Amino acid sequence: DAGVTQSPTHLIKTRGQQVTLRCSPISGHKSVSWYQQVLGQGPQFIFQYYEKEERGRGNFPDRFSARQFPNYSSELNVNALLLGDSALYLCASSGSPGETQYFGPGTRLLVL
Amino acid sequence: GQQVMQIPQYQHVQEGEDFTTYCNSSTTLSNIQWYKQRPGGHPVFLIQLVKSGEVKKQKRLTFQFGEAKKNSSLHITATQTTDVGTYFCADNTGKLIFGQGTTLQVKP
Fold it and tell me: Smallest CA–CA separation between A72 and chain B, in Å?
């Protein structure tokens, strides 16, 4: 079975632009979480979705938004990009919140 | 908010030496998950500890959960070059709260 997939793998944007990152969970998993990992640090929780409902939100500004689709895939949107948004964005899926989360390969975003 | 502290930040060992990373919290941990992230890669799930005092082993890796559920450790016996990477602990409260990670370098 395929693991968590994310697209694109790499992305270069300029300040002020908007970006959309995509994630497909492991088949059968209904929960998707998004994390931001800045170089040299541990991943920081951004959002969690379960059954298309937002179940949790981390300490990130309103420029960050997400949604989950009926097929349980998810998108993370970031508006008005800042240089500090440069990071590895990780998607993780689990059967339900609280179960083990399995990470995708991530999207490396560089904001110039 | 809740913080999970992990030490040391870096560890350089000679191949064959042992390695330990420690994870601590001022509040009771829900359950601890350990992940390994290779350079340029993504976190890969290693194990989950749920019960107070729990000890689990995976080949050369030994994971422990403290009696008070406020700390955890990962010990690697006789490190190999394939053990290189960053090891993270994370408290699983539904969302994962990660420690800062310990980066292990192994000299052959």
Answer: 17
Cβ pairs bridging A and B (under 8 Å) = 53
How does pLDDT run across A70-89, given as a tens digit for each residue?
999 999 999 999 999 999 99
The DSSP annotation for chain A comes to ----EEE-SEEEE-TT--EEEEEEPPTT--EEEEEEE-TTS--EEEEEEETTEEEEE-S--TTEEEEE-TTS-EEEEE-S--GGG-EEEEEEEESSTTSPPEE---EEEEE-
Give tens-digit pLDDT for B77-95: 999 999 999 999 999 998 9
Q: Between B42, B99, B101, which is nearest A103 by CB?
A: B42
Q: Which of B2, B37, B95 has the most A C-beta neighbours within 10 Å, making it the best mutation to test the interface with A?
A: B95
